């Protein structure tokens, strides 16, 4: 295996980003704040993308071994952040919400491959489930199905993503967008940029 177990993503790496966030002056209108959000998200999705790619290349013994590595990443990035500032905590919560969908997508793809249908169909169904029925389980399931298709090489139609009302589905789509970029260009995001 090219990357040792437990080394795809580490507590230290996540905590370095959180330390940087603690030191930043957040301004919702600032490009720097938006860049920090996306760098933190992208850094974690790059690790998820590498696990998917290594599984596809036969680097893992089996699907269970790849899933165990995804679980390690999940434990790190979804752990409660020790941040006092409410605005920064909200930012981390948004990143974690986005990562939930990316992690489920990776697991689903490794276990079952790409879903039936199209990315657009699943995203529209997810948005409808959230808006009309407030059925978040169904909305997440559709986002994950869309994600497996993104992993399989389909484009994430940004015009559909932009139509989605702000809410959980929009956060989950952020995670899929980040995962798609990471799969296309899995470069490491440097924390000291």
Description of the structure:
With 193 residues, this protein is mostly helical. The chain has a domain at 11-113 and 171-184. The chain has eight helices and no strands. Helix 2 runs parallel beside helix 4 (86-112) and helix 4 (86-112) crosses helix 8. The longest helix has 27 residues, at 86-112. The chain is globular. It starts with 10 loop residues before the first helix and ends in a 9-residue tail after the last helix.
Radius of gyration: 16 Å
Helix and strand succession? HHHHHHHH
**Helix/strand structural class:** mainly alpha
Averaged pLDDT, please?
89
User: Distance between termini?
Assistant: 29 Å
Tell me the overall shape.
globular
Protein name: DUF2150 family protein
InterPro entries: UCP022079
Organism: Natronomonas aquatica
Pfam family, one: DUF2150
């Amino acid at each position: 295996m090219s990357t040792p177990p437990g080394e795809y993503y580490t507590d230290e790496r996540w905590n370095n980003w959180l330390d940087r966030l603690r030191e930043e002056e957040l301004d919702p209108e600032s490009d720097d704040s938006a860049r920090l959000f996306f760098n933190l998200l992208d850094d974690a999705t790059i690790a998820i993308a590498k696990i998917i790619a290594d599984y596809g290349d036969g680097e893992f013994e089996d699907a269970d071994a790849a899933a165990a590595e995804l679980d390690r990443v999940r434990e790190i990035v979804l752990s409660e952040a020790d941040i006092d500032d409410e605005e920064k905590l909200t930012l981390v919560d948004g990143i974690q919400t986005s990562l939930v969908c990316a992690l489920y997508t990776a697991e689903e793809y490794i276990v079952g491959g790409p879903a039936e249908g199209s990315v657009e169909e699943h995203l529209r169904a997810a948005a409808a489930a959230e808006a009309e029925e407030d059925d978040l389980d169904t909305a997440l399931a559709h986002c994950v199905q869309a994600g497996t298709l993104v992993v399989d090489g389909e484009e994430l139609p940004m015009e559909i993503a932009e139509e989605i009302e702000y809410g959980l589905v929009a956060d989950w789509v952020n995670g899929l967008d980040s995962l798609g970029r990471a799969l296309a260009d899995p470069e490491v995001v440097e924390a000291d940029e």
